[in-house]
């Protein structure tokens, strides 16, 4: 996934001018080359470039360490958890490379209906989102499975 993210961003940045748009599905989907100095939905995009760089690189590195820790702690019986965490990890790495190289992230997927646009995103963002969604499903499934198991209360006298 990291390679796909890198290749798509390299292609977009070399084949298109900044803010150039290429319609794919009229009224719904364009390829639009933009750069996002912030995070999701432009979070901290107005902060000073120095603060943004340090903040996002530090937070991303911490997230990567935590995800790697949970991947290592996961067992072979949890392949969906490992897949979910791997998607999150690959997305974090893809966007980290952009932040280190450019101080901002290359985005190009522009989904919209009429004049209402979702913030532009990229393959790394998609991997993070899909991984987080799959992880939530696994967490809810695990919680539901635990709710079905009778709990033993050792303090109850019979």
Largest sheet: 4 strands, antiparallel
How many strands in all?
4
Radius of gyration: 20 Å
Average pLDDT confidence is 88
**How would you sum up the global shape?**
globular
Please give the count of helices: 4
Distance between the ends: 56 Å
Tell me the domain tally. Answer: 1
Order of secondary-structure elements: HEEHHEEH
- Low-pLDDT segments, ≥5 res: none
- Main β-sheet, spatial strand arrangement: 1-2-3-4
Structural class: alpha+beta
Estimate the helix proportion, in percent. Answer: 55-70%
The fraction of residues assigned to DSSP E strands is 15-25%
Primary descriptors:
globular; 56% helix; alpha+beta; 158 residues; 4-stranded antiparallel beta sheet; 4 strands; 4 helices
What report would you give on this structure?
The protein has 158 residues and is α+β, with helices and mostly antiparallel strands. The protein has one domain. Helix content is 56%, strand content 15%.
Write a short abstract of this structure.
The protein is of the alpha+beta class and 158 residues long. It has helices at residues 2-15, 49-73, 79-102, 123-148; strands at residues 21-25, 29-36, 105-113, 116-117. A four-stranded antiparallel sheet has the order 1-2-3-4.
Secondary structure blueprint with pairings:
Layout: H1 2-15, E1 21-25, E2 29-36, H2 49-73, H3 79-102, E3 105-113, E4 116-117, H4 123-148
Antiparallel strand pairs: 1-2, 2-3, 3-4
Helix pairs in contact: 1-3, 2-3, 3-4
């Amino acid at each position: 996934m990291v390679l796909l993210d890198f290749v798509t961003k390299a292609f977009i940045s070399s084949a298109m001018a900044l803010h150039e748009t290429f319609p794919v599905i009229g009224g719904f989907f364009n390829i639009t080359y933009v750069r996002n100095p912030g995070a999701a939905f432009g979070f901290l995009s107005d902060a000073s470039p120095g603060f943004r760089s340090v903040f996002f690189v530090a937070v991303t590195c911490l997230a990567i360490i935590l995800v790697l820790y949970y991947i290592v702690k996961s067992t072979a019986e949890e392949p969906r958890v490992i897949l979910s965490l791997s998607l999150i990890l690959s997305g974090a790495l893809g966007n980290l490379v952009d932040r280190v190289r450019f101080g901002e992230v290359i985005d190009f997927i522009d989904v919209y209906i009429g004049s209402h646009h979702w913030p532009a995103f990229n393959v790394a963002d998609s991997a993070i989102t899909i991984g987080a969604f799959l992880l939530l499903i696994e967490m809810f499934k695990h919680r539901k499975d635990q709710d079905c198991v009778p709990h033993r209360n050792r303090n109850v006298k019979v």
